[in-house]
Amino acid sequence: xxxxxxxxxxxxxxxxxxxxxxxxxxxxxxxxxxxxxxxxxxxxxxxxxxxxxxxxxxxxxxxxxxxxxxxxxxxxxxxxxxxxxxxxxxxxxxxxxxxxxxxxxxxxxxxxxxxxxxxxxxxxxxxxxxxxxxxxxxxxxxxxxxxxxxxxxxxxxxxxxxxxxxxxxxxxxxxxxxxxxxxxxxxxxxxxxxxxxxxxxxxxxxxxxxxxxxxxxxxxxxxxxxxxxxxxxxxxxxxxxxxxxxxxxxxxxxxxxxxxxxxxxxxxxxxxxxxxxxxxxxxxxxxxxxxxxxx
Length: 295
Fold this sequence. Notes:
Blueprint: E1 7-9, H1 24-33, H2 39-50, E2 53-55, H3 64-72, H4 91-105, E3 111-115, H5 121-130, E4 135-140, H6 143-154, E5 161-165, E6 178-184, H7 193-206, E7 207-218, H8 224-257, H9 263-272, E8 277-284, E9 287-293
Parallel strand pairs: 3-4, 3-6, 4-5, 6-7
Antiparallel strand pairs: 1-2, 7-9, 8-9
């Protein structure tokens, strides 16, 4: 089961301890100098490390072009505010929570960036919750998605819309210009640690002081046993919607396209890149809603 979302237990060097890897000779020297834990405590630490969930190799994952082409054909499915994310547990609740939190933390909203906007559902929900128009920046890899999102957003009375057909990592977005940035079901397409850090650093640089960043996404767990439990529960959820075939279809998409990280990893990274406050709003199985803001 641990292979199902891009991860597996990491092999642990028998000589590895809290201070890092060491040879048997170094371990004995540390023991004699009083710098090594007892065997029992060390074994417990090594066992915990063996349970740690680790990302797999990303070389076989879909490219951004592959992902864009798939979403080009999914416009209709993602154009429903309530059911467009049926494969996501608690999607309507998470969307409600991040938009309400955005308004609570950033009560004066002039400009919003929706990353991986799809058909615009999260911007539409924020417009509904905020009750007033704002300048809307929509970013997505898919041209057809962007076209649909812009049409739907303009119908709400938002006249100022900028569409970006681009990858966040490459887009020449204006620094310190956004009051709110939304990222729903998009960050799981990031790959290695450097990719994640660069993306979070960029988001931080795009926000004005007092601006906030809100995420809903697929996540993995920190340890293999809990990951397997949550993944099994998610499989049951998918079968309840569309049977075993639907379950396998979604799992295949995830295996091919996605590389999610634990919510704890992302909260820590948000702090590390400079966000002053972070909050977990909701988590159910393999999905979470959370956010951060800067002073």
